[in-house]
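Run HTH araC/xylS-type domain-containing protein through structure prediction, thanks.
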Amino acid sequence: MEIPKKYRSRQAEITESFLRVMHAHMDDFMAGRAPEMLHLKDLAGVLCLHPVHVSTIVKLHTGFHPCHFYELRIAEEAKALLADASLAVGEVAGRLTYDTSNFTKFFKLYVGMTPTAYRRSLSLSAPALLPAHGKPQLRLAA
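Sure, done. The structure for HTH araC/xylS-type domain-containing protein is below.
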């Protein structure tokens, strides 16, 4: 039996609302305007919906649990923070409310490599540097 169209459009509406609220919260968290990361139940509360309902609807509509989208966003923020070589991996983990060990496992699961390997890959793919004499010089990783 197929789901009626009016229910499918409500699924899309709830999913879009969840993603909008989640991204706005992550923007606030990363900018320091939110003191902690919210849980799914808190994000559902902002929508005035039960967390189980939000979870069920988002999964029906996308095929993924809402936490999947939250974790993808955290992985993107982690990649951005890791691009700053002045931040230690442990500091990046702490900013994202992880301990270093769990952050490394999380990052490897979502990005496919450890934070250190990701950082190394950034330095290998960096554009050529121009020295004072104006000729390009490749930067090699140690």
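Confidence is low (pLDDT under 50) at residues 128-142.
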